[in-house]
């Protein structure tokens, strides 16, 4: 094992990361190294940034930056700088969040029929076109799933929706309020 992956494994062990976090962090770590977006060879900083990214964005574990700094012994400035590189490399844009895979995972997690996925996709696309999505892409998708689920045999509550999406109920509700402003929402629900 090379020095880079040794640093990653040590950091994963320090954080006692569960296997899904380990897998995703390793994948992101490899992407950053392959694309050579990092100008320095501080692999411990990169490893901590990848773990922090995965825990806060992929698995909604809400690890505080201060906890990452304390566990890893890395300064806030270095960690934030590397975190930005990781974000840029992964490029979690609205398009990836609104992808059919993400929408499918959310619908499957709620035991919703696959027939509502095209409706959800259309609502999300209309939201993006009107500029209502903003930075809360996950919230918009969750709200779109909530709206579409209301026309199924087993409508889901906002609480169920936000739990599966890994969001607070307040964020999902704010996104729902934005989506209710869509001019053609009723036509999409037919």
UniProtKB/TrEMBL annotation:
CDD domains: CYCLIN_SF
Magnesium listed as a keyword: no
Top-rank lineage group of the source organism: Eukaryota
Domain Transcription factor TFIIB cyclin-like: from-to ranges: 3-87, 97-178
Listed InterPro entries: Cyclin-like_sf, TFIIB, TFIIB_cyclin
One annotated GO biological process: transcription initiation at RNA polymerase II promoter
Keywords: Transcription, Transcription regulation
Cellular component GO terms held in the UniProt record: nucleus; transcription preinitiation complex
Protein's recorded name: TFIIB domain-containing protein
């Amino acid at each position: 094992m090379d020095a880079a992956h040794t640093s990653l494994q040590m950091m994963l062990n320090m954080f006692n990361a569960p296997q899904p976090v380990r897998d995703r962090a390793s994948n992101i770590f490899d992407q950053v190294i392959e694309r050579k977006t990092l100008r320095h060879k501080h692999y411990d900083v990169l490893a901590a940034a990848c773990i922090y990214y995965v825990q806060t964005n992929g698995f909604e574990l809400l690890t505080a930056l201060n906890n990452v700094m304390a566990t890893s012994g890395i300064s806030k400035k270095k960690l934030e700088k590397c975190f930005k590189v990781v974000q840029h490399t992964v490029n979690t844009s609205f398009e990836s969040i609104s992808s059919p895979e993400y929408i499918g995972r959310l619908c499957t997690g709620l035991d919703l029929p696959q027939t509502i996925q095209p409706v959800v996709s259309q609502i999300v696309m209309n939201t993006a076109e009107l500029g209502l999505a903003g930075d809360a892409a996950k919230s918009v998708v969750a709200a779109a799933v909530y709206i579409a689920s209301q026309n199924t045999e087993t409508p889901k509550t906002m609480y169920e929706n936000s739990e599966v999406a890994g969001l607070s109920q307040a964020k999902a509700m704010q996104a729902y309020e934005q989506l209710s402003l869509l001019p053609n929402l009723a036509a999409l629900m037919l």
